[in-house]
Specification:
With 403 residues, this protein is α/β, with parallel strands linked by helices. It folds into 2 domains: 1-24 and 182-233, no CATH class; 31-178 and 235-386, Alkaline Phosphatase, subunit A, CATH 3.40.720. Helix content is 30%, strand content 12%. The protein contains 13 helices and 11 strands. The strands form 2 sheets. Strands 7-6-8-1-9-10-5-11 form an 8-stranded mixed beta sheet, with helices on both faces. The protein is globular and about 55 Å long.
Length: 403
């Protein structure tokens, strides 16, 4: 693990961490009872790995090394409908599917069709349909339509407010005082960004060369370097979920929350990395359910990522940036217990640009349905203000139970 204290001290950023505060939420009476939680998985979730199309005849052809075992075999996926199966790390969510409270929707995408993380996340959060088409977030604009006054119906969890919640409507924030663990992708990007910077580059290099830093080989006996460490499940996401549930469960608390999870850019060692991340996600969703109590019946959770990944595996037991992805909808307000959308298949003729899962459901159509059918906003407001220039994308019908 990188020595953060050393890096922060040497780079002069130590004082910045003092601004990451403990819980700081002020409640006010809420005009609506329904809750909406959006979970953004940053990096591009491989939906084909999380929800394996095990009955698709092209699945194992495209992924000879990454394809998950068939249902009923050792380590096999958890069959849902004879065609799709959940990754075993998502096993806690199977109970939601059985209770008709989980709706997986494969082959989803925003209107964005390129494969840049930065642009893709911007489109996902701004709702403008194009990179940097708006300076505020679509969920903030939606909150402004629900808020008759300064009620702060929105809640952001984490050290920074994501774009999706930025805008004129004031929101609440919650963050743990301790810094979260950094992942492999973050370290690689940080090293590349600051490799020529004399101050930050040297501070990062020194920090990574401490005995506990990833990839550090200094002062480590051979037997220690060869030993595969056993680390407990990272519970930071679960902690945030527990905090979110406690705040949203209050009758005088916020009604809309955004959570984030990092590290989903799995170009290499995908199975190992996604097993851990999917497990964290599943336990986080269950923590939301348990913490919300009776309010879970009026809750919709939407799990999304900026894009999917290639249909075929690459040469490093991973996948590359793609197009069609996966949305997971959970909650008592969700019409679950089925697979949503339309599956395009993995045949050569069905792929997008001969490489990606072809999108058949727009993420904006899911978001629109959540705002109109679940949160009670008018369709005109959603079409004109929240997602401008998107009338060609219709709200996804029969997705949420109406209030």
């Amino acid at each position: 693990m990188i020595d953060r204290r050393l890096f922060l001290q040497q780079s002069g950023l130590a004082g910045l961490t003092a601004t990451i505060a403990a819980p700081r939420v002020a409640f006010a009476d809420a005009p609506i009872e329904n809750r909406l939680i959006v979970i953004v998985l940053r990096g591009g979730l491989d939906g084909i790995h999380a929800l394996a199309p095990h009955a698709d005849p092209d699945y194992r052809r495209l992924r000879p090394a990454l394809a998950l075992a068939a249902p009923g075999t050792g380590g096999g996926v958890l069959d849902l409908d004879g065609v799709f199966g959940l990754h075993r790390a998502l096993a806690p969510l199977q109970q939601l599917y059985t209770a008709n409270e989980l709706l997986p929707i494969p082959a989803v995408a925003t209107r964005y069709r390129r494969r840049s993380h930065f642009d893709g996340q911007n489109v996902l959060e701004s709702g403008s349909g194009k990179p940097f088409g708006a300076r505020d977030g679509w969920l903030n604009r939606a909150i402004s339509g629900l808020n008759a006054g300064d009620l702060r119906l929105g809640l952001g969890l984490g050290p920074a407010v994501p774009l999706i919640l930025q805008g004129k409507a004031r929101i609440q924030t919650w963050a743990e005082s301790t810094l979260p663990e950094v992942d492999e992708d973050f370290l690689a990007r940080l090293a590349f960004t600051y490799e020529t910077d004399p101050l930050f580059g040297q501070a990062l290099a020194d920090a990574r060369n401490t005995p506990n830093a990833p990839n550090s080989q200094k002062s480590m006996p051979d037997e220690v370097q060869k030993r595969k460490p056993r680390t407990p499940r990272n519970k930071e996401f679960e902690k945030a979920a527990t905090a979110a549930a406690a705040l949203l469960a209050s009758s005088a608390g916020p009604r809309i929350a955004v959570m984030e999870s990092q590290g989903w850019d799995t170009h290499f060692a995908q199975d190992r990395r996604l097993t851990a991340l999917l497990g964290q996600l599943a336990h986080g969703v269950i923590s939301l359910r348990d913490g919300l109590g009776n309010a879970w019946k009026k809750t919709a959770v939407i799990v999304v990522s900026e894009f999917g990944r290639t249909a075929a595996e690459n040469g490093t037991r991973g996948t590359d940036h793609g197009t069609g992805g996966l949305a997971l909808l959970a909650g008592g307000a969700v019409k679950g217990g089925r697979i949503g959308g339309k599956w395009p298949g993995l045949s050569p003729a069905g792929l997008y640009q001969n490489r990606d899962l072809r999108p058949t459901t727009g993420l904006e159509s899911i978001f629109k349905a959540a705002l109109i059918d679940h949160m009670g906003l008018s369709q005109a407001f959603v079409e004109d203000t929240v997602f401008p220039d998107s009338r060609g994308v219709q709200p996804l019908s029969s997705t949420f139970r109406r209030p």
